[in-house]
Design a protein that fits this description.
The chain has helices at residues 7-16, 36-46, 62-72, 84-97, 114-121, 139-145, 168-180, 235-249, 254-266, 269-292, 317-326, 354-365; strands at residues 23-24, 79-82, 104-109, 125-130, 150-156, 184-188, 211-216, 229-232, 296-297, 305-309, 329-330, 332-333, 345-348. The protein is of the alpha/beta class and 366 residues long. It comes from Natrarchaeobaculum aegyptiacum.
């Protein structure tokens, strides 16, 4: 089975080898501190008895699964703790395909590149539904594209790369479409803590056997290196997902799960609001500089990415490398997210050097 190495790695490798200072706006690695309770949890773990350093239950620590289930209003047996949200999406998409209801995975355009990569790796066939200019998905377009060969519809809200947030009406209609075609809606909600518009709606709010919700703590707790995610499956789909998870990963990090649970118990909501406010300020600063440079841009309703388009400078890999060499700013080429944004570039606002990066872009492209 052939599939492409994600373009992220090529761009990051090029930036790392550059013979100059480069502001990294490629990857979504938060630059702020994790919750204090999470650090304390890791310190506590170091002093536990030897059996705490052995395999955890494959599906995850029971206490963490119970906490997630209580917060999300689901049965604990539906929750599988995964190696980040990335594995959660892999399990969800695999589960949709192995039901033998079809081989097509409907994705959005633009799309987070790992979704089509996983689709191809799993033997599925990606198909695309274009979003509108704000990044929103029109359910009518999904309904028109769906068929008896549709195994899954994969959506991400708040969205990477557009920053769009899908309202409850959209999510409800997407679940209805999945039910009509005996497909699975896979709703990736890993950016749910970064909703600036107040419009986010989880698919877990809709009762259905045709939706799987994935999430994780990498972004919300600024711990992309700990790899603690989860998926919530309908009861009739969870057993096979558990089996695949065990065969692929055995389990995920026990210290990470312990620390995440402590952070869930002891972290004040102000922690998340401070980080949202930090990002609001960065969005303002970055988009103001883009506007001054005459660029077209998206203003995110959620997540922490901005897409920008400069006249005469399309978002190709070659132009991305040029920006690294000449402007000292590393972003992602829009062509990596699908055909509809190939003229655009995507920038992650998870660096304290946002204003400096914007000034460099304006100076080179303005």
């Amino acid at each position: 089975m052939e599939y492409e190495t994600p373009l992220f790695f090529r761009v990051m490798a090029y930036a790392n080898e550059a013979d100059r200072d480069v502001v990294d706006m490629v990857s979504g690695n938060p630059d702020w501190d994790p919750p204090a309770a999470l650090r304390e949890g890791l310190r506590e773990y170091a002093d536990l008895e030897p059996d705490a350093f052995q395999y955890p239950p494959s599906v995850g620590l029971r206490a963490l699964r119970e906490e997630i289930a209580a917060r999300r209003g689901v049965d604990v047996e539906q929750v599988v703790i995964t190696n980040g949200a990335g594995e959660a999406n892999y399990l969800a998409m695999a589960r949709a395909l192995e039901r033998d209801r079809g081989e097509e995975i409907l994705l959005t355009d633009p799309v987070y590149p790992y979704y089509p990569g996983k689709t191809t790796m799993l033997g599925g066939r990606p198909a695309y539904v274009a979003t509108d200019e704000t990044g929103r998905l029109d359910p009518a377009a999904v309904r028109e594209a769906a068929s008896e060969d549709t195994a899954a519809i994969v959506v991400n809200s708040p969205n990477n790369p557009t920053g769009a947030v899908y309202p409850e009406k959209t999510i409800r209609e997407l679940v209805t479409i999945a039910e009509a075609h005996d497909a699975i809606l896979v709703s990736d909600e890993v950016y749910d803590h970064f909703d600036y518009a107040g419009a986010f709606s989880s698919a877990l709010g809709i009762e259905s056997n045709h939706r799987i919700v994935t999430n994780g703590f990498s972004k919300s707790m600024a711990i992309t290196g700990l790899r603690v995610g989860y998926a919530v499956f309908p009861h009739h789909l969870v057993e096979n997902a558990r089996g695949r998870h065990m065969l692929v990963n055995v389990a995920t990090t026990r210290p990470g799960q312990y620390a995440v649970l402590k952070a869930l118990h002891e972290t004040d909501p102000d922690y998340y609001e401070r980080n949202r406010e930090r990002l609001r300020e960065r969005i303002d600063a970055f988009t103001e500089a883009l506007e001054a440079a005459g660029a077209e841009y998206t203003r995110p309703e959620g997540s922490f990415y901005v897409m920008a388009r400069f006249d005469g400078f399309p978002g190709t890999v070659e132009n991305t490398f040029e920006l690294i060499d000449e402007a000292g700013v590393a972003g992602m080429p829009g062509s990596g997210f699908g055909d509809s944004r190939e003229d655009w570039l995507r920038f992650a606002l998870v660096t304290p050097r946002v204003e400096e990066a914007a000034d460099r872009l304006a100076g080179y492209l303005g």
